[in-house]
Every structure is written in C-alpha cells, then in structure tokens.
Design a protein that fits this description.
The protein is of the alpha/beta class. The protein has 7 helices and 7 strands; from the N terminus they run E-H-E-H-E-E-H-E-E-H-H-E-H-H. The longest helix has 14 residues. It starts with 7 loop residues before the first strand and ends with a helix.
C-alpha cells in the first residue's frame, strides 16, 4: 500500500521538479513566493543549498495549515566554485567549457515544512563530464535550454546524453530533486 500524505505544496517553478513529483504519484499544488536567494559568505556548497531551500520554506510558515511544503535549491560546484544559472549565452558557454573533462558536484538542498516544523537535508551527486568541443557546447546552447539551470546544463538533455560519462549518486538529484531521499523523509514526517 502506498503511504498517504497530507496535501503537498511544491514551492518551485521548475518543470523538472514538477515532473518528478508527478512521476512519484503525488497530487500537489504549485505555489510560488519571491525569496531573496543570497547567502552569507563562508558557507560550503551543501550549506548554501540547504540555506536557500530553508529560506524558501520559511516564506510559507505563516501561510499553511495541515499541508507539507517542499522547497529545493540545486547548485553545481566545481572545485568549490559555485556555478549558478547563467546570465547569458556567453556565461553559459564559459560554464560548460569549465565543466568539460572534469568532475563536479551537483547538490540539492531540500526543506520540508509541516506544522511550523522545518526538516532539511541535502543530496550530493558526483558528475563526470567527458571533454566537449566548443562546437558541441554552442550546439547545446542553441538547441536546448541551459539558461534556467545551475551549471548551464540539464543531464536529461542532449549534453547530458553525450557528455556525461558517469555519475556517482542519485540521477534524479542532478535533474533537480533527490526523489528516493525525498520519499523517505516525507514518510518520516508523516508518521
């Protein structure tokens, strides 16, 4: 039997997160709140992802009753340097050039808010990129949608299919939501 959960609010405009929750069989409502995604200096990449996801969840604390709010923030870290969403095509090209031939970490911080209680965790996946040419990077930028993604790429898109040699960890985490861990934490929260 599949566990029943209280009503779920997904506080994310990411179509990838919405699709993953649908694939998990959840009925949910998407509700968005504007949140400043800045963070204090000195935090590690995993601390940054959790810090921002908690900020997003806290924006709902006085607005909900009996629901579970799910928030998330995914970041790409290359040798400790944070690669956020690209500002323009040149920025995307630079990020993908940096990732070419290297290992990087994709970290998603997830926060669950229920009954004014906040529960947070993060998942880290190592991603190993093959070397990609400038021509391949330009093709990807021109044919896919790197602008709304941390690190300027989606593993489920063309570049992920041809340039990701292997991963160590959760595939769905790289897409934007660590589904196995999320389900486990939702079960704990609903006991």
């Amino acid at each position: 039997m599949i566990k029943q959960f209280p009503p779920i609010i997904l506080a994310s405009k990411s179509p990838r997160r919405q699709e993953l929750l649908k694939l998990m069989g959840f009925d949910f409502q998407v509700v968005l709140r504007e949140v400043d995604e800045s963070y204090p200096p000195g935090l590690s990449p995993s601390e940054i992802a959790v810090y921002i996801s908690e900020k997003k969840a806290k924006a709902f604390d006085l607005l909900i009753e009996n629901e579970i709010v799910i928030t998330a923030d995914t970041i790409v870290s290359l040798d400790g340097k944070i690669l956020g969403k690209p500002e323009n095509e040149d920025h995307a090209f630079g990020m993908l050039s940096e990732l070419s031939g290297k290992r990087h970490d994709v970290i998603t911080g997830v926060s669950l808010l229920k009954d004014h209680k906040l529960s947070s965790f993060y998942e880290l996946t190592e991603v190993f990129f093959k070397e990609v040419s400038a021509e391949q990077i330009r093709y990807y930028i021109n044919t896919c949608q790197p602008m709304d993604k941390a690190g300027a790429y989606g593993i489920q898109e063309w570049i992920g299919l041809v340039a990701v040699d292997r991963i160590n960890g959760s595939y769905s985490n790289v897409v934007g939501l660590p589904t196995h861990r999320l389900y486990t934490e939702l079960c704990k929260l609903s006991e």
